[in-house]
Amino acid sequence: MAQRHSPPVPCSAPLLAISFLAWAATGLELTVNDHAADFALPTKPGQAVSLSCLVHNGSQAERLVWYRGEGQVGLSDGNRENSSNICIFPVRESDHGVAFTCRLERDRAVQVSVLLDVEFPPQLGGEETLQTEEEKDVTLTCNSKANPQAQTTWYKDNTTLTLQQGHHELYQTSEVFQLSIRKVQKSDNGTYTCVVESSLGKGTKDFHLIVEDKKPVFPKEAVIAAIVVVTLTLFFGIVARKDKLFKVW
């Protein structure tokens, strides 16, 4: 099921007052949650994240804008001037790696970005049945997202799989875990389990591999049928020309 993005909505937190002190006016600056530079914010699915953007060292009223990635966030008029607050609720796994950026409206180079670091365990489940013939190649694929990054272990019939050079190959990215078996044999029959595990939990998926006998390149039935056809063709050809053959003899 496709996940929907969590739209940022104005938080109910009161606007914070800004003190304009002439002696401290060393240049216009923004902060988000007291950070004057870009930063990552750890969170978890289901939580609420409140972001507060403030203008510092300003000599006039300044308007602020918020962005979620490249898209602008809608703000009420009372939530724009000198300070602005947004809330992301509930945080979803799809929010991982998304940047929320507060910018000065009249000078968009003045900005601070918050990168959401959404932590969640591996989500993996279900099972598959794969049928193949001897001597063919087969690939088992686990698709899983996790943060922090997870480690993968393959099992065969509930025992850690012993990898054989030239027979087994592993391929892994942050979201794809594959086991390829080259030129499968009857001994490769069995249940393979992909276990993806991080510090937050683990997920598993089973693959039931069935290796069938190798089919001959020329099926026996087809060969027999061809022989019968050729034989009958020769027979009827001889019968049709028997008079000429008898005259020759």
Describe what is shown at a glance:
Helix content is 11%, strand content 39%. With 249 residues, it is mostly beta strands.
Overview of this structure, please?
Helices cover 11% and strands 39% of the residues. It is mainly beta and 249 residues long. The chain has two domains: 27-118, Immunoglobulins (Immunoglobulin-like, Sandwich); 121-212, Sandwich (Immunoglobulin-like). The strands form four sheets. Strands 2-8-7-4-5 form a five-stranded mixed sheet, with no helix packed on it. A five-stranded mixed sheet has the order 9-16-15-11-12, with no helix packed on it. A three-stranded antiparallel sheet has the order 1-3-6, with no helix packed on it. It is elongated. Residues 12-26 have low confidence and may be disordered. Residues 1-27 form the signal peptide. One of its GO terms (cellular component) is plasma membrane. It is found in: Membrane.
